[in-house]
Amino acid sequence: MFTGIIEEQGRVVHVGHGVLRIDAHELLGDVTVGASITVDGISLTVVKPLDDGFTAAIIPHTAATSNDS
Terminal CA-to-CA distance of the chain, rounded, Å? Predict the structure, then answer.
């Protein structure tokens, strides 16, 4: 089991068509396409690093079975 290291508390700022946009400023040096990043306990795959965060893909099963609180 991998527990990971909490580096920053990012914020989901947009959700659309299976892609989330997350604001995260301290992670930017480590974010690469295809990286696995956990946001609120949900494992996501980085689609595109941005200047102030990143976009991540979420598969429909994950979206349907995750807590949306």
Answer: 25
Write out pLDDT tens, residues 31-57: 789 988 877 777 788 899 888 888 988
Using a CB cutoff of 8 Å and minimum separation of 24, what contacts does 5-14 make? 10/39, 10/53, 12/39, 13/53
Can you tell me the distance from the alpha carbon of 21 to that of 44, in angstroms, rounded to the nearest whole number? 11
Q: Which two tokens stand for residue 33?
A: 């396409």
Q: Which pTM does this prediction carry? A: 0.69
For 17-56, the three-class secondary structure string (H helix, E strand, C coil) is CCEEEEECCCCCCCCCCCCEEEECCEEEEEEEEECCEEEE
Euclidean distance between CA atoms 16 and 4, whole angstroms: 27
